[in-house]
Amino acid sequence: MAITMQDFQNSLETARRMDQDDPLHKWRDEFYIPTHQGEPVLYFCGNSLGLQPKTARPMIEQELKDWAQHGVEGHFEAERPWVHYHEFLTDAMAKVVGGNACEVVCMNSLTVNLHLMMVSFYRPEGRRRKILIEGGAFPSDQYAVASQARFHGLDADQVVEELQPRPGEHLLRTEDILTKVEELGDELALIMIGGVNYLTGQLYDMEAITQKGHAVGAKVGFDLAHGAGNVPLRLHDWGVDFAVWCSYKYLNSGPGGIAGCFVHENHVKGNLPRFEGWWGHSKEKRFKMEPSFEAIPSVEAWQLSNPPIFQLASLLASLKIFDQAGMSELRTKSECLTSYLEYMVVDAFGSRDLVITPSQVHERGAQLSFRIPKGGRDVLERLKQRGVICDFREPNIIRAAPTPLYNSYEDVFRFVSILKECVHELS
Ligand SMILES: *Cc1c(COP(=O)(O)O)cnc(C)c1O
User: Fold this and answer.
1) Residue 199 near residue 224 (C-beta atoms within 8 A)
2) Where would you tag: which of 156, 177, 238, 288 has the fewest CB atoms within 10 A of its CB?
């Protein structure tokens, strides 16, 4: 029986019943849940580092075994031959972001991919030099865009434009983003925004932003660190030029896991300038060691090096889970689970004043951010002592992400009662 928001009640019994009725609840058993004093923790940090699928270890062990048994021959003779290994992830990853197979590749890490993409898509020329980014973007993104501007001999302060919420507001309004794009017009070279804001949890209207960006002649890319494996994405249909994301957050590939990269089909066969390496060269001719580069006619042309197989292995383990559970089923549960968290917080605190994440379901993913009135960092410490793992961001934000693969309604129920205690003890 499907669970709906009408079923919400502030009782442990109801939470447990919703878990019983949840068709995805069984996936929780496929993950290792860390413990605190012998009990599973309430883990709400899947937006920062996803938990370990139980299938990750055997998947990595297979590669250790193949290495032991075959040495260098493992490139061709391993159970999953290493020369092709990244291809085994493509279809599942493409489904996660709504791309075609020729548009999606797993390689490098997020910030590296962001730079590689900007080499191709940020081509300042004449009046068209500006990069539009959201204010307070994740620091790595800020450093990346500013350093790209300087790389082209430009003054980053003059070139990088930041979107800011209206005075007294925490969130960006879509209309304001679109107006800004229009104002920048033919000065705008690139829009590069975090599709889901890491701090507020706001999910932006990527389709509308892409359309407007293209209407003024700009390129449009997204950092989907908080989007991939979390919210519905249709990068191909939206016409997004490029996107990059990491896989260790919602995609559960493990610390420092290999990242993803999307380049729209419209660009993969063109002759965009790009930094090149041997793994982007024609697969048939790679081992002929010829001096001139012949690009693979897909996003794989942006690959530089032969990839880290152990990292691909743990990501493959995780992507198999996403493929079986299904992104749309996960999103259905996620909307309900996050709404239940919001419902419980409103019930416990008497209002949603604490919550800075949008109230509209289509404007958020699996995260609520709370502005803690007093002693934010101490609240986090107290939560931890009671077996709750969340995180804290300066100056006073606690972020909690109920992820649909391994969090339960009971987790949410218990979390909110502990949060209430901790906030009240410090106020
Ligand atoms: C997590 C995150 C990153 C991390 O970058 P790495 O290159 O993987 O270290 C970058 N940008 C955003 C928006 C993030 O949330």
Assistant:
1) no
2) 288
Q: Please list the ranges in the chain whose pLDDT falls under 70.
A: 1-2
Q: Tokens 């991939």 appear where?
A: 228
pLDDT of residue 2: 66
User: Does the annotation list 179 as a binding residue?
Assistant: no
Q: How far is CA 105 from CA 140, 232, 300, in A?
A: 21, 18, 6
Q: Which atom of ligand 1 is nearest to the CA of 138?
A: 13
Q: What is the 48 CA–ligand 1 centroid distance (Å)?
A: 9
CA 420–ligand 1 middle distance (angstroms)? 30
Atom in ligand 1 nearest the alpha carbon of residue 110: 7
pLDDT tens-digit series, residues 223-237: 999 999 999 999 999
pLDDT at 427: 82
Give the tens place of pLDDT for each residue, 325-374.
999 999 999 999 999 999 999 999 999 999 999 999 999 999 999 999 88
pLDDT of residue 233: 98
Tell me: is residue 204 an annotated ligand-binding position: no
Domain 5-30+326-426 falls in which CATH fold? Aspartate Aminotransferase, domain 1 (3.90.1150)
Please report the pLDDT score of residue 1 as a whole number: 53
First vs last Cα of the chain: how many Å apart? 41
Domain boundaries, the chain: 5-30+326-426, 60-323
Check residue 142 and give left, alpha or beta (phi > 0: left; psi -120 to 50: alpha).
alpha
Q: What is the CA radius of gyration of the chain?
A: 22
Q: Give the E-state strand segments of 273-389 in sequence order.
A: 368-371, 388-389
From the alpha carbon of 137, which atom of ligand 1 is closest?
13
- Hey, whose CA ends up nearest to atom 1 of ligand 1? 225
Is 223 assigned to a binding site? yes
**C-alpha atoms less than 13 angstroms from C-alpha of 170 in its C-beta half-sphere:** 17
pLDDT in tens, 379-419: 999 999 999 999 999 889 999 999 999 999 999 999 999 99
CATH code: domain 60-323 is 3.40.640.10
